[in-house]
Fold this protein.
Amino acid sequence: MYAIEVNDLTKSFGDLMAVDHICFSVSQGEIFGFLGPNGAGKTTTTRMLTCISTPTEGSAQIMGNDIQKQAFAAKEQMGVVTDISNVYLDLSAQENLIFTGKLYGLSKDRRLQKAKELLELFGLQDVRHEIVRGFSGGMKRRLTIAMALVNDASVLFLDEPTTALDVQSVRVIHELIMKLNSSGTTIFLTTHNMAEASSLCNRVAIISQGRIATVDTPERLKQAMDRVHSVEVVFESSSSHLVKDLEELQGVRGVQKRGNMLRLLTLHPPEVLTGVFQYSERKDLRLLSINTLGPSLEDVFLEMTGEEIVERTKGSGKSSERRGSVKSRRSSH
Amino acid sequence: MFGVLFPIALFFTFTVGRNLSSMQSLPILLSQTVFWASSTVGPVVIPLERRTKTFDRYLSAPMSLFSVLLGKTMAGIFFGFFVSIVPLLIGTLLFPVEVMNAAALALGIILSCFAFAAMGIMFASVPTESVGNIMMPLNFVRIPLLFISGVFIPIGELPVIGQVAAYLSPLTHTLILVRGGLGVESFSIPLGASIIALFVTGLLFLYLSLKFHEIIRKRE
């Protein structure tokens, strides 16, 4: 039995297909990363899996329980950490945990015992009677995760657990995730942070424009990433032939123009750097800046999907598109 | 405080200069207090809980949507009930007001709290994180109800269509039961009919709340 099994799960908002017939499964005891840019459908998927939102089509099971037909049983098996720390600010840390225990129908003794255990595990024992409003972002995040574990969840959904946290808090939360996983909890980690997914996850799924682009191990994704680098260059002046000339430099796979900055995609940055310097001297064009960049999540998407990334903002009516004049986007996959 | 102050402000707005006795004015104040206080809880609490995402906690916990909405309705009932004690105490302690039919008064207040709390929850199904986005449509309904329910304008002075609308308004039945409880002459329908009307209205609002919230969950 899988911890999470998703079949053709779909969510549409009017004409917008936010999640488009996705399928994947997560084994018990696995840390599964769910990656994608803003608006890709990560949070929408998580909201459906955690019974907060109803799917338009498709089905999903949590520990064998259908999220629609056996919602109670499915909910009893899961703990949910949303993308913001949804703690009760006017209650103390201990009261937050006890109240959550009440929501899950725990007995009074069990609630108190569980609250004590979790306060110790998450390093909140000393501030257990303090009102949460005064807590730092990291402390609130830890308490949010602790609240998700009150019911001894078999599957823990973490939606962007480390966003907007300082480095120390991120490290503490990463250690907690590893500790929970080693005790048998299945983790479903939603993030747009490739490094976080890489260091924590057994496997990751990449979602783009509501569709699963790939499901693979981080190592294999990194291999794909290692092949895509870029050189960002700004010239003092520009000409109508500049983009075309740069596209023809040796080692350049594509050129993206962003304002007065040109981004040259390449597999071999040193070769492109040499070419750019030579071109600059030959054409007597003064270089204002030049940088080499490692692969971004966007580059991985381009490699994996062979599509341009369109970032959509649900509900706000905004739609920002990131498109480049990529010469060749097809990978060898 | 809003639950007490706003009805009092409205009460003075429409009663000062009309030379009403305390026996005539207390039912108006009491009905308004129950009406405003109970119907305000859902529209204030639910969007704020949506904003802080604590509402998501209830949805992902092993409980039904109906349980969540019933809990919110009960919060409105308790709030409306306790706030309504303020004008009742003022009336009975400071003015020569006597409770003549305690059962009618208690049922009037409790069932009105239920009906108006459920009405507030129904409006709170609007998927917003802003209280104002719910209060605006809610007040489009609440304020006209004051004028067709015999609160400020006697029902007998309304045109026929207004009188028909008055008996469809739950606030009319609140006023009938409160007046009946305080021994003030009221309308020509039995108290039992008003009790049933308020109970059925409350159930209807609660049912509609559930349906609207389910629709929103499908769309969100």
Observations:
- Residues 5-219 of chain B form one domain.
- The CA atoms of residues 7 and 33 of chain B lie 5 Å apart.
